[in-house]
Amino acid sequence: MSTEKTQIPIIQENVERRWQSILAASEQFPQFSDYQDDIKQILALSPFVGELIATQPKVLAEILEHQWHIHADAASLCTLLAEQLENVESEPNLLAALRQFRQTHMAALAWRDLTHRQTIETSLSQVSQLADALIMGAYHWLYANLCERHGTPQGPFGPQPMLVLGMGKLGGHELNFSSDIDLIFAYPLKGETDHPRKPLENQPFFTKLAQKLIAALNKITVHGQVFRVDMRLRPFGESGPLVAHFGALEDYYQDQGRQWERYAMIKARILNPSCRYTEQLESILQPFIYRRYLDFTTLDAIRDMKQLINKELRRRQLHNNIKLGPGGIREVEFFAQSFQLIHGGREARLQSRQLIHVLHQLVELQLIEQDDIDTLITDYYFLRKAEHTLQQFNDQQTQLLPDEPWPQHVLTQVMGFEDYASFLAELEQVMGRIHAQFNQLVAEPGDEAQQHDSLFTRCKDAWVVTMTDVEFSQLFETELAPDNARILFDQLSDFRQSLSRHRIGQKGEDTLAKLIPELLYFMLQQCPGDTVILFPRLCSVISAITGRTTYLDLLHENPNVLKQLIKLCARSEWITEQIRSFPLLLDELLTPLYLQQQQTDITLCFAEYNDELRQALLRVEPDDIEQLMEQWRQFKLSQQLRIAASDISGSLPVAKVSDKLTALAEVMLHAVLNSAWGQVTEKFGAPGHLQEGEFGFLIIGYGKLGGYELGYGSDLDLVFLHNAPQDSITNGKKAISAQQFYIKLSQRIMHLLNTKTMAGQLYETDLRLRPSGNSGLLCCHENGFAHYQENEAWTWEHQALVRARSIVGDTALHDSFMRIRQTILQRQRTLPALVEDVVSMREKMRQHLLDTKADGLDLKQCEGGITDIEFMTQFWVLGYAHQFPALVKWTDNLRIIDTVADVGLLSPEQAETLQSAYLTLRDHYHQLTLSGVKLASQTDVLNEIRQQVSALWQSCLGDKRTADNKE
């Protein structure tokens, strides 16, 4: 645009003129000559700095004396300004002191900035720190002055301050060089000052203070201006009072606060030092800004704001504006703050005023890719550096690209380009990338070719147009068979009628009018052959959330979530029921972690779940038991859904599904024991025989939990042990015997596990395997447990012991239990009697539990089913562990079968057949659970497996029993 030849004379002429002015002062400041090159460099880059140092040599001398770094940190700035204001005795002198202080430090900052003595990140922070110092310095002087005249407003925590809220870039410590500042003022309580003769009501006192503070900063004098002050963000805008008390603020934001005000408040920062009053104001603003739920109702407002931005771009043609133009600074800020409004209520890490921190957190939360954020941050800082350079030229608030040669030359040099055209080319790419990210934000839900899709148009007609079943069938004749079309028509009609019985309000109706056509559209795209089963499932979910428009918005605004919901409901009635009962699970579909690589090692799963639970509980007060129980249940539901979805997607084999469900249950039991222990010891103290860190307590898992084979919805078979001496009592104020203590602990654990909250039960539990069953003590002494197992337990109880292991508790009790288990399982038994007991019990179970008239296979209880395999493994352990101790090592069937083969009781081929059969049957059983079906269809594959299992049963138990009976 402009050539170097035309630029140099212009710059040289101005530089030389100002240099001569500076030389004229060199007698007083001889050091100026030593810095000739540095001074001439800044004279060429900033007429603002040049004019200041040429007319005020003392400023130049101070900058050079401190090597450009005069009081660049906030604490030093505040201290220095406070010292300078100590001797100020009038408001005119205050205004002069503030302006001179501002000019000196702004000049030093611009010098550092333009000559690359610091980064743009540092410059943004320092401008904000300088602003804080100036605003609060003026405030403190004026407050003290008014208190001398009118008395001090008093409150419950001492003198009441006027709290100054810095908005926008000031609040975010990102203030640009020449900026106006947006402020909001508030004071705590109504009342009056403590003046002994003429007290003044707090409202006029603080109004005077606000007016004086605005004038001190905003007024243009011979010394210039500190900051342009904008108060339009206060409640009721320009028509509202300059300063409001906390009660009025709270009422306003509760009843009348609008979405754009929430957006503006994200960066609001109280500039006053922290105190009880600042805490009160924070507690008022926080719930207004960040909703506790995932706030998708905000999206309409965000979309409206985005549309306004785009309309403004088209109307004003702001292509040369690096802040407001397409791809400008405003779009980066809007991008980050939109995510904060939507997700900030649930994700505390997004509740930050600093844009860069928020962008990094979007990566941590897996909302945006790392590369995209890295590019966005780099591009943002490029624009901020260009903005600073433009404003430091003449200390003017501008974001417009210059037309004049001199500022173009400065921009080119400071930004590091060979010529202005190269800078413009890079700027175009930077703003293009930012605008592309901006355009991806809250796109219209129908953007992805839906609106022009014939199928989508027909789906809209199906929902809004009154038609007959024949017309409906004709409408979807390419997607649906006639019978299925008629069934879907009836289902849709019934659903529409059922909605009329719900009071969902206008907003809910509007959202449903958009959502249902989308649901039909994706359903017919993804699963046209499953609509008869699928649509009622989807309707059950929609019906469950019709009164909660947040979730309707979530599905409408996020096509990928809707697609995932359709996929999961198509595959699983169980998942459908989970989501229908607990709609909070819809949040999980926003970031479908089950589509990623799964951790399958059970030890690592335990560690992973333990860490995730710990993070989830950071927001819960430890003594808030109700919230703790709710959070446990939500965590378990979410993790269980991820496992089931991974199962459906095929990324987890059945054994690993059980491993993950088992690890999840163990983590929850650890958490429950720790919480229950804290609650009971708080009331009664701990048993006196314990050492530091001991419980004297053990939770034993039986059955599927003990065998690492939990399924969806499995209950937990538990037994509780303790090792307290008979005379042990607790050490609390309300002392009880240790036996009573452990019974109360067990009761508390059961309460925490079994109580139904809004998120359901944590786990259903069964304690019937404890000594003496339902008539026994809830918690048994280890000696009593050993005695019972040795002298009173039935064979079936020893079978149950095969699949028992310690879950959580003390190491000493764990070792004791393992010795008892090993002793009992390795006891030598008479094989004929054992065979008779095992087979008789199996027959009784089948008679009692198997419905012989049912139309389908009960994979657990049928001949050749899952329970037959479990009974065989238990028989081998009880019958041969005295001979082969390795048989008692494992509690899960697969590894027991491996060991049985290792010791020669089965051939490797038989073991492989049995393990394959067991895995296949369990996989089918898992899938039946997910599908909401209890019985399997008889297939050739299942029949062949059952025959193989029955043959092994016969050779293992049947033949032995026959032989024994003949004898």
Automatic annotation (TrEMBL):
Domain named PII-uridylyltransferase/Glutamine-synthetase adenylyltransferase: residues: 303-441, 841-931
Cofactor: Mg(2+)
Secretion signal span: none
Residue span of region Adenylyl removase: 1-446
Protein EC: 2.7.7.89, 2.7.7.42
Superkingdom per UniProt: Bacteria
Any GO CC annotation of this UniProt entry: cytosol
Enzyme class: transferase
GO MF annotation list: [glutamate-ammonia-ligase] adenylyltransferase activity; [glutamine synthetase]-adenylyl-L-tyrosine phosphorylase activity; ATP binding; ligase activity; magnesium ion binding
The UniProt record lists the keyword Hydrolase: no
Biological role: Involved in the regulation of glutamine synthetase GlnA, a key enzyme in the process to assimilate ammonia. When cellular nitrogen levels are high, the C-terminal adenylyl transferase (AT) inactivates GlnA by covalent transfer of an adenylyl group from ATP to specific tyrosine residue of GlnA, thus reducing its activity. Conversely, when nitrogen levels are low, the N-terminal adenylyl removase (AR) activates GlnA by removing the adenylyl group by phosphorolysis, increasing its activity.
Protein known as: Bifunctional glutamine synthetase adenylyltransferase/adenylyl-removing enzyme
Originating species: Marisediminitalea aggregata
Originating gene: glnE
